[in-house]
Amino acid sequence: MRRVVFYNSRINKWLRAPDMLQKRHFFGSCVINNCLYVAGGECEGLQRTLRSAEVYDPNRNRWSCIAEMTTGMVPSTGVVHDGKWFLKGLNSHRQVVSEVYLLASKMWSTTGNEMVIGWRDPSISFNGQLYSADCRDGCKLKVYNRETRSWTRFIDTRHHLGSSRALEAAAFVSLNGKLCIIRNNMSITVINISDPITVTEVDSASMWEAFARKGQHRSFMANLWSTITGRNLKTDIMHCQVLQV
């Protein structure tokens, strides 16, 4: 794919953004300093994984190339942590590789195996710490210890939901100082990191109903959610990035 669209909440419409410079799919993406970065992936017709990367600046409304990765990959997970963009995926030989983009130098380099081993999707940088799922539905979390250079168990909610595709954790999001675990079926678990014992299950339908109870707001949320996920909620959450324009 090359085409890019974005949702403008002010006018309640999807609009076209400039096309990416390189056609790609199965790529990694992130937001740093209100700019959208994409890297790696595959391109139809090319018998190799991509090394190229580019950045979109909403203020200039254009894409620009940045330094290429040292190794092409199809990213499986990625996170922005400590001012760096970490990516982990498979190269053209189906081997696990990892890279880190250093914003200060605008260059890529390889990462240490200590962090890559045990790192799985989804993950999030939260309050200066790097957290990752430790089970399929996200009921267990682990944290990366810089001093020991290893992952350690952080929390076990002891509330295992299941291992089906619908219950698989798709994304971690920070909200009002709490960590939200969003699953493919749109169910959400809210965890207070400062008090890991406090875990609240939130039914997505009830949450949106409480947020938009009547009239225009209710219709707006229903239409937006169905546009993103599909009318029957049979699609999976892929990537969702937010930019200020």
From TrEMBL:
Where does the source fall among the domains of life?
Eukaryota
* InterPro entries found in the cross-reference section: Kelch-typ_b-propeller, Kelch_1
**Keywords for the protein's UniProt record, in alphabetical order:** Kelch repeat, Repeat
Q: What SUPFAM superfamilies does the entry give?
A: Kelch motif
- Which Pfam families has this protein been placed in? Kelch_1 (PF01344)
Does Repeat appear among the keywords? yes
Please state what the protein is called.
Uncharacterized protein
Q: What organism is the protein native to? A: Digitaria exilis
